[in-house]
């Protein structure tokens, strides 16, 4: 029974991977800058497992919740010394307000290894498009403030740079960590 169960899970993972590859999620490159101003591309993260989230620092509720969950999932994975390290990444969808300094201030509250990436509006748009992330800035209020509507997904990218899975809001940190562990085991 256990053998059949593992076989079924393995087939499901392979099917999910084929579906993600067919969507071409994350197969393009990106050219952004981290919070120290260092140029970063997808190639900088090859060889590492990456949990990637697109959001913005002025988000009132969803982004902080998702980053908190991402940080907790990384901590859960770090407790298992047999697993490779996971690199948490945050890419802003609001480069107008999210410069390197703003990202550094914002991200320090979530996980010590969380890397923030920003760039020109065109560079950020290209990075979001590579993962098919929807982004749309809303209307400005009287103070010039606005909210950015965007896809709420966390992407798991394997050491080869392929998107292995994506997780929506309904997944808990524990479920996310368990899924990442499963992908690492089957890699």
TrEMBL record:
Membrane topology: Single-pass membrane protein
Any single Gene Ontology cellular-component annotation: mitochondrial inner membrane
Pfam families (alphabetical): SCO1-SenC
Residues the record lists as binding Cu cation: 59, 63, 150
GO molecular function: metal ion binding
One record GO biological process: mitochondrial respiratory chain complex IV assembly
Chief place where the protein resides: mitochondrion
Residue pairs linked by disulfide bridges in the UniProt entry: 59-63
Family listed: Belongs to the SCO1/2 family.
Protein's name in the database: SCO2 protein
């Amino acid at each position: 029974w256990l053998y059949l169960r593992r076989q079924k899970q393995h087939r499901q993972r392979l099917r999910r991977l084929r579906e993600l590859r067919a969507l071409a999620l994350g197969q393009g490159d990106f050219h952004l800058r981290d919070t120290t101003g260092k140029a970063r591309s997808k190639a900088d993260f090859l060889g590492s497992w990456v949990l990637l989230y697109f959001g913005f620092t002025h988000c009132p509720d969803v982004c902080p919740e998702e980053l908190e969950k991402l940080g907790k999932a990384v901590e859960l994975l770090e407790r298992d010394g047999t697993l490779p390290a996971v690199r948490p990444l945050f890419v802003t969808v609001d480069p107008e307000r999210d410069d390197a300094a703003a990202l550094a201030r914002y991200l320090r509250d979530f996980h010590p290894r969380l890397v923030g990436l920003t760039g020109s509006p065109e560079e950020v748009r290209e990075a979001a498009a590579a993962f098919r992330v929807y982004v749309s800035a809303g209307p400005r209020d009287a103070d010039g403030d606005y909210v950015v509507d965007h896809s709420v997904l966390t992407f798991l990218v394997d050491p080869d740079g392929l998107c292995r899975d994506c997780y929506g809001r309904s997944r808990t940190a524990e479920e996310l960590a368990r899924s990442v562990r499963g992908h690492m085991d089957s890699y």
